[in-house]
Amino acid sequence: MQKQFDFIIIGGGIIGLSIARELIIRHPKSKILVLEKEHDVARHGSGRNSGVLHAGFYYTADSLKAKFTRDGNQALREYCYANNLRINESKKVVVTKDATELPALFELEKRGKTNGVDVTIIDEKELYEIDPNVNTFQHALYSPKTATVDPVEVTQAVRKELQDKGVEISFGDGYSKRLDGNTIQTVKNNVWSAKVIINAAGLYADKVARDFGFSDNYTIIPFKGIYLKYTGKTPPVSINVYPVPNLRNPFLGVHFTITVDGTVKIGPTSTPAFWRENYTGFDRFTASEMAQIIGWEALLFTTNAFGFRRLAIEEMKKYSKKYFTGLAKYLVKEMDVKGFNKWGVPGIRAQLLDKNTKELVMDFVVEGDNDSVHVLNAVSPAFTCSFPFAKWVVDNYVKY
């Protein structure tokens, strides 16, 4: 039996749920379905990320990421306090290794201040007062608004809010194919239609979009991220500590993160994965996906597009704990290396590749028309950005 909705949202991660939340707030009488292939929300990127609420100083002010990160940091902080969700106001410093990194550090300060973010350049004495074990060369960047939350806890709170407001969530039944117009078939052979279909399928967003005539120029390249947890007696840091990043790629380098429960971890890796849900071993192995993705990765490696060859080689080295911990060691003065001995749950970043330029897309990408909307690149820090990004999607793409 075919069911009719006003909105069908494909994907029960933080982006899909945030869009559903924005829609039910604006249209409280509308019929909304969230279609999720897993048996709960946040089973992929939304529940496997670091939980950091980023402040928004990495990105140029003309980018969507800059605005969404700044506004999302405030929105999610307010949401956590209003709903009694855990939040660790752990703050953050970006430190330098030597004089060559100082220009990039000051560029980060400039970007942050241009975007209205609370950031300050501090010297070594001021850094010592914040955390005496953190190491830097002459200067560091201090971000008092960076915090950490439990991403699963937050996403579950949004799920409950939606269900309390009458949004239907269908678990264990993912998108299969488009039949015609805005009628879709699920993997359990349910047939559902909607006035507007919104694709927030994460790792599979590009494939869903192509069924609707979009994403011609893009494909998803998955990158696996794993953190290494500290289980020793005395935590090495009391604040999130990051290196100065390479501003040409979307990865922030190995850093110290303090989780919402106070656990210290270093990471993540950014290893090219071989299929979209290549978490561990041959779990969820798909031969056709592997052939396609390895084909793209081989091309990027051969041509060394955006420095992919060096990135891939560097990331493979991180499977050595000795090498991995060594990348974090210079960020602090003293470090109990043996205390970092427990790998965390791996996550996969759905990173969009422009097939024409062979470049990773660094900002949000959405395509659509009056009938369907496709979130192709909910790029990191998408969790932080989720609430304002959802408003922007509804404002600019959803005609209802």
Describe this structure as you would to a colleague.
The protein is an alpha+beta fold. The chain has helices spanning 14-26, 45-48, 64-82, 102-114, 124-130, 151-164, 205-211, 287-303, 308-317, 321-329, 382-397; strands spanning 3-10, 32-36, 52-53, 87-88, 92-95, 120-123, 139-143, 147-149, 168-171, 175-180, 183-186, 191-199, 218-225, 228-230, 240-243, 255-258, 264-267, 271-272, 340-343, 347-354, 359-360, 365-368, 372-377. Helix content is 32%, strand content 26%. α1 crosses α11 (382-397) and α3 (64-82) crosses α11. The chain is globular and about 65 Å long. The mean pLDDT is 95.
In terms of topology, how is this protein built?
Blueprint: E1 3-10, H1 14-26, E2 32-36, H2 45-48, E3 52-53, H3 64-82, E4 87-88, E5 92-95, H4 102-114, E6 120-123, H5 124-130, E7 139-143, E8 147-149, H6 151-164, E9 168-171, E10 175-180, E11 183-186, E12 191-199, H7 205-211, E13 218-225, E14 228-230, E15 240-243, E16 255-258, E17 264-267, E18 271-272, H8 287-303, H9 308-317, H10 321-329, E19 340-343, E20 347-354, E21 359-360, E22 365-368, E23 372-377, H11 382-397
Parallel strand pairs: 1-2, 1-12, 2-9, 5-15, 12-23
Antiparallel strand pairs: 3-8, 4-8, 5-7, 6-7, 10-11, 11-12, 13-18, 13-20, 14-17, 14-19, 16-17, 20-21, 22-23
Brief write-up:
This protein has 400 residues and is an alpha+beta fold. 32% of the residues lie in helices and 26% in strands.
